[in-house]
Amino acid sequence: MEGEKIMNKLTLLIVVLITGIVLAGCSGKNNISQNDYNQAYNELPATAEINENLPGMQQPEGDKVNPPSPGKKNETTPAAQPFKLGNELLMSKYHHLIEGKRVGLVTNQSGVTRQGASMIDVLARDQSIRLTALYGPEHGIDGNAQAGEYVESYIHPKLGIPVYSLYGNTRMPTEEMLRPVDVLVFDIQDIGARSYTYMSTLNYCLVAAQKYNKPVIVLDRPNPLGGNVVEGPVLEDRFKTFVGVDNLPMAHGMTAGELARFFNRKIGARLEVIAMEGYTRKMIYQDTGLPWVQTSPNIPDLDAVFGYMATGLGEGTGVFQADKFKWIGGKGIDSQKYAGLLNSAGLPGVTFVPENRGEAGGVRLKIRDYRSFNPAKTGIYALTCAHTLNNFAVPKSGQTVVMFDKIMGTDKIGQYLEQGLTPQQIEEKYAPALNRFKEERKKYLIYN
User: Fold this and answer.
1) Which end of the chain, N or C, is surrounded by fewer C-beta atoms within 10 Å?
2) Contacts of 14 (CB under 8 A, 6+ apart)
3) For residue 186, what are the contacts with CB-CB under 8 A and spacing of at least 6?
4) Looking at the DSSP assignment, which residues form a beta bridge with residue 131?
């Protein structure tokens, strides 16, 4: 009976609105007053405002994605929407998720609106909530600490609230850190590489939130490399560390929201993803119209983002990156031969220019087509070709896993290099696991 009364009231409201619209269309004036509208709306019982109490409306099980994920056709959504970040939509369509709550924000300098406003400031000004704690990843909440540098917790000088470091005494929020908050909001820009630790922080936050019964809201942001570049060896369980927290390939082709859903398959936290609007998988960062905000000291621009995996895989080998991931080389490498090998490999979207740096020979990457460029594949080729020229010693894991294998997510790449396999043969070796991942990840994608 109660459901029938609610539907009757809703019908009344619709009739009042339609009548006003029709009259306005005939007379050129709007004949429905605000009082008429308010009266019809206020006659609805309070339960009508809660979707799950309306007949036929039930909340889906599992993670919540706002707006609906692909596969659920939304007839009211225009075919082409303007691009909007998850943080914009939180403050407009989904503000009810934080109203009246104590909010903890996991962020850094990259957590800004499209107008460049820090979400710290946006939430601090919001009178309907209380911003009670901030949490910073590697490099700190301002992004100035160097890679691997210990970051202290402190009290924010203007807001007077704790800024908890998740790259100091702990990398996972403790019960004490989460005590001041009712909901944890995550807003950090990623660069699309498994080893970049901001998404590891997201994973650890989900684990802590599940343990201490706190909901998590992820404000989604674009994957700068696009959503279709999925490449490299898939991380094996033995090699899970903070530079690889889950069974992902080097380039996963997922957004923060999609990764959160993927991570949560094993965690079970109360997760809401505020999806972007106007975003598709084929978009790279340049398509969003957003200015790039430096995410860490060595990622000042998009060339560094795209070059990160292409030049940064040689940890411990003597093959190193320089000039913010725009150059790769090492001692004992002939720059001309190196450039010749790489340019003859037919890698899409990039040209390699020979360039010495001191005693090291190497190449500078000239990315011609950011859409076709494949950073992880390029990195495998660059490392393999370097090994053919200077036969560097491959780092090996024993009781302690070396950083080279942590970055690779496996010790097999090192074995393949020692066996003298070509880049194409190495690709063939990791392809089966990569294809299995591609199939598995479909369940967690949000965008077409």
Assistant:
1) N
2) none
3) 106, 107, 202, 205, 216, 217, 218, 219, 256, 260
4) 103
pLDDT digits (tens, 9 = 90+) for 348-376: 999 999 999 999 999 999 999 999 999 99
Give the architecture (CATH level 2) of 302-439: Alpha-Beta Complex (3.90)
- First-to-last alpha carbon distance for the chain, in angstroms, is 41
CATH of domain 86-220+255-281: 3.40.50.12170
Contacts of residue 368, defined as CB under 8 A and 6 or more positions apart, other chains included, come to 349, 350, 351
The β-bridge partners of 244 are: 241
Q: What is the pTM of this model?
A: 0.84
Cβ atoms of 181 and 132 closer than 8 Å? yes
